[in-house]
Structures are given as C-alpha cells and as structure tokens.
Amino acid sequence: MNIVLMGYMGSGKSLIGRTLSEKVKMEYLDLDDYIEIQEKKTISDIFSDKGEIYFRKRETAHLIEVLKKYDNKIISLGGGTPCFLGNLEILKEDSNVQSIYLQTSLEELTKRLLPERHKRPLIAHIDTFDGLMDFIRKHVFERSFYYNQSNHIIKTDQKDANQISEESIALLF
C-alpha cells in the first residue's frame, strides 16, 4: 500500500510523512522534491520559467510515474496536486493507494505560511496576514472539494506530528 498525504500547503504533509515513515518503517517520498530532482529545477523556478500549466502537466506525469514505480511508500503531495488534471481520479482508481487529507484551519495555515511565503510561488507576493488569510480562504474553499474525497480526514489543529501519525496508523493498520 502507498499512503498518500494531501492538504493545503502548510498543513504538515512533509513533517507528518517523515514522522509516519519512521513509525511504520516505510520509505517517505515528497512529490515536490521528486519533481525538483527529475526536472533539475526548483518548483519556484519551474513556475517562473514555464508557468503553472507546464508545472501541473509535469506534476501529473511524475505522480503517475511514482505510483507505478513505487510500492509501500508514504507520499506527500503538493497542495494543488489532487486538484488538477485528473490527479484525484488517478489516486482514487489506484487500489494500492490510501489517501489522508490533513485538514488544517485557515488561522493555523496563515500563521504557518506567513513567515515562509517567499519560498512559495503562489503566495510570495502577499505581504499581510489578512491578505494571506483571504487568499488561503479562497484556495481552501476551491480545493476542499478534492481534499474531502480522500479516504480519510484528520484534523491537525492542536496536534503534534506524533499525535497525527498515531491517528493515521489507527486509521490505516
């Protein structure tokens, strides 16, 4: 089984993926890191050089590749991965995939993302807490339709990585 973590940027997919990996002794793969290695460019550079549409097409190709190539992995997706180009259907149709949506409140996402916004192409231009919260609110509203189709949903607010990992284990094993 591949365990796929999805959720908005800043929801803790990478941290939970690494923590869960240690607990269940499965290898961890971050799809964004995988894309950067394969494309030999950072996500930010891909966005700025080729645009979001190009990136989303490459993201889908790499997602398909990863699901075919690997088994028994914990895979964290980019925040938008399940929302574009049929990626959610690819995940849902793969009987080897169990997906978990890490659901995080708008306030918590904004607190986490404001200090690191310059590293994230979609929000690098937003300078205020309120502006970022409005942006996140709109995005999460648009994306929640996709996220909520995951096999499992875990609310992450006021929980640490160990608690979320233990909750994931209880759902999956």
Short description:
With 173 residues, the protein is of the alpha/beta class. It has helices at 13-24, 31-39, 43-50, 52-69, 87-93, 106-113, 129-147, 161-172; strands at residues 2-6, 27-30, 73-76, 97-103, 152-155. It has a single domain, classed as Rossmann fold (3-Layer(aba) Sandwich), CATH 3.40.50.300.
Please provide a written account of the structure.
The chain has 173 residues and is an alpha/beta fold. It has one domain: P-loop containing nucleotide triphosphate hydrolases (Rossmann fold, 3-Layer(aba) Sandwich). It is 54% helix and 14% strand. It is built from eight helices and five strands, in the order E-H-E-H-H-H-E-H-E-H-H-E-H.
Topology:
Layout: E1 2-6, H1 13-24, E2 27-30, H2 31-39, H3 43-50, H4 52-69, E3 73-76, H5 87-93, E4 97-103, H6 106-113, H7 129-147, E5 152-155, H8 161-172
